[in-house]
Amino acid sequence: MKKALLLHSSREGQTVKILRSIESELAGNYECELVDLHDMPEVNWAEYDKVLIGASIRYGHLNKKLYRFIENNLSALNETKAAFFCVNLTARKPGKDTPEGSVYMKKFRKLSPWQPELQDVFAGALYYPRYKLFDRVMIQFIMKMTGGETDPTKEVEYTNWDRVKDFSERFRSL
Q1: Where do the domains of the chain lie, and which CATH numbers do they carry?
Q2: What is the CA radius of gyration of the chain?
Q3: What is the pLDDT of residues 14-26, one digit of tens each?
Q4: For 119-153, what is each residue's pLDDT tens digit?
Q5: Chain Cα centroid distance, residue 71
Q6: If residue 31 lies in a helix (H) or strand (E), which one and from where to where?
Q7: Helix, strand, or coil (residue 75)
Q8: Angle at 65 between CA 113 and CA 83, to 5 degrees
Q9: Nearest to 106 by CA among 62, 160, 157
Q10: Given CA atoms 7, 11, 12, 15 in this order, what sign does their dihedral have?
Q11: For 50, what's the count of Cα atoms within 13 Å in the CB-facing half-sphere?
């Protein structure tokens, strides 16, 4: 059976949840291995037919370790069937939920030497009760500025699962 490596750079877990959904869509065609890319310094690229990296935005930035991973594995990523998506709360708004409309994807394209053909962006989730006080206050402030949910007792999932399914199909046919 073919093998796919699903790597994540995630803080709160929504990116992993999206990758698990993609993994279930690939079932039957691919054996998937889901790994935190921060814990995987060496990749045996020959083991995998495809690679997918999902990364979350935290306070406006992708994790620096993601960029380091890309730089350290650039030639392998360029030679592999590989794709990328990022997860952020801004993507909950129409027009900000596409690679072309996402400020974070534009920033990724500018900062990353790796430019995969298949890219996407998905809305994340708010998990106020799970956040530490500092994060909760900061996220509330950001959400207030952007017209989002500010009730600290709520958990809201903004991910468009139909878009994730469509992306899964495009990744499968890469």
Answers
A1: 2-124+159-173 (3.40.50.360), 125-158 (no CATH)
A2: 16
A3: 999 999 999 999 9
A4: 999 999 999 999 999 999 999 999 999 899 999 99
A5: 18
A6: strand 30-36
A7: helix
A8: 50
A9: 62
A10: negative
A11: 24
Place of tokens 């291995």: 33
State pLDDT tens for residues 55-82.
Answer: 999 989 999 999 999 999 999 999 999 9
Average pLDDT for the chain:
95
Q: End-to-end CA distance of the chain: give it in Å, rounded.
A: 16
Q: What is the pLDDT of residue 12?
A: 83
Give me the mean pLDDT over the 31-40 stretch.
Answer: 92
> Which tokens in the block code for residue 149?
């949910």
Rounded Cα distance, 162 and 169, in Å: 11
Residue pair 4/48 in contact (Cβ under 8 Å)? The answer is: yes
Q: Which two tokens stand for residue 25?
A: 């869509």
Number of H helices, E strands in the chain: 6, 7
